[in-house]
Amino acid sequence: MFDITPVERAVICGRDPQRTREAATKLGWSESSADWREVVARDDIDIVDICTEQRTNRDQRFTRQFGLRLRVDKRAPLP
Q1: Ramachandran quadrant class, 43 (left: phi over 0; alpha: psi -120 to 50; beta: rest)
Q2: Is 67 left (phi over 0), alpha (psi -120 to 50) or beta?
Q3: What is the pLDDT of residue 79?
Q4: 78: helix, strand or coil
Q5: What pLDDT does 20 receive?
Q6: Which of 14, 48, 66, 69 could form a disulfide with 20 if both were Cys (CB 3.0 to 4.6 A apart)?
Q7: Do 13 and 30 touch, CB atoms closer than 8 A?
Q8: Is the overall model pTM greater than 0.85, yes or no?
Q9: Residue 57 carries which DSSP code?
Q10: Cα 63-64-67 angle, rounded to 5 deg
């Protein structure tokens, strides 16, 4: 088997503060935020996983400038 180090899910970020707080509670995240720039500037964030439609994640790709590992999940738009 793989030796996988557990990952702490520190912050979940979304555009709607209320829905993001609800998702954090439901999915077991420690915190929620509606400002991705604030999140990527934190010292305790090492990996950013972007799960959004391609048209909405262009600015978020700048997380690389903060020295973070980045993973982007490109979602197909809904019909």
Answers
A1: alpha
A2: left
A3: 46
A4: coil
A5: 95
A6: 14
A7: no
A8: no
A9: -
A10: 105
